[in-house]
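Hey, quick one: can you model this chain's 3D structure?
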Amino acid sequence: MLRRTFLSLTTALLPLLALPAHSQQPTQPAQGAAMLPAPSKSGYAPVNGVEVYYAVFGEGEPLVLLHGGLMNMGMFGPVLAKLAETRQVIGVDLQSHGRTLPFDRPMTFEALATDIAELIGWLGFERADIMGYSFGGITALRTAIDHPEVVDKLIVVSAPFAYSGWHDYNAEGMRQIGAHLAEGMMGTPMYEAYVSVAPDPDNFPKLLEQMGSMIGKDYDWSAEIPGITAPTLLVVGDYDAVRISHATAFFELLGGGKIDGGWDGSGMTPNRFAVIPSVTHYAIGSDLRLAEAAIGFLDL
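Sure thing. Here's the predicted structure for all 300 residues.
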């Protein structure tokens, strides 16, 4: 019964899980780790009173890459590999995810943002670009709000600035996540992706418990969005789990799209908005068009 209950919720939970609905085989995100280049270095960074796993790929300007919920950096697969051709990509496994332990602290976007801000400094950088998808996109957004001094450019992929930005079905589904689903998830792609890299697979219920304690909570950061100082790229799919109207409002809060940009572009702000066609929330994280959009923005 528990497994059937989980499977019935799978589609609704997906905005933070980053896997296609009803999949019985490992999917692109689950296979992503096999598609990553070899890291030049990796390990655990002592930041914010905890130890966060990171891996560095490629050379160049630093770009911190943050994964979706219940996944790890491997979910980006070819997108990470493409970004690493011209940049030093710093993949991070967030609290409870992948190779990073749950810690004895509540999971909050504020805590995760501080982890990332301190990681940038610990790695020896004054500032870095940050790109995050879904759960990681919300974390990246919070980092730019709370720690603007460490963020050069910000890329937010398929993530809302308020809980109301999710479609109702997805928002309701995320409220159901919790440790009680752990047994029913055994053998699913999400579980297999976790146990393939986790230091202690028995922490899986803790991951669900910590996620459940935060992702169903209402939030609205609309008042803080206009104060973001980092040039920002918003990316969504045309059939995303994030409402397209919300994504447009997000761009307008950043000051974009309010006037004609002009023949010479003088009416444009440093911020950009990209809608990738024919893609859903569940596929955008490994779509090479995402890498192309990110590189074009970072190269501006």
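One thing worth noting: The mean pLDDT is 90.
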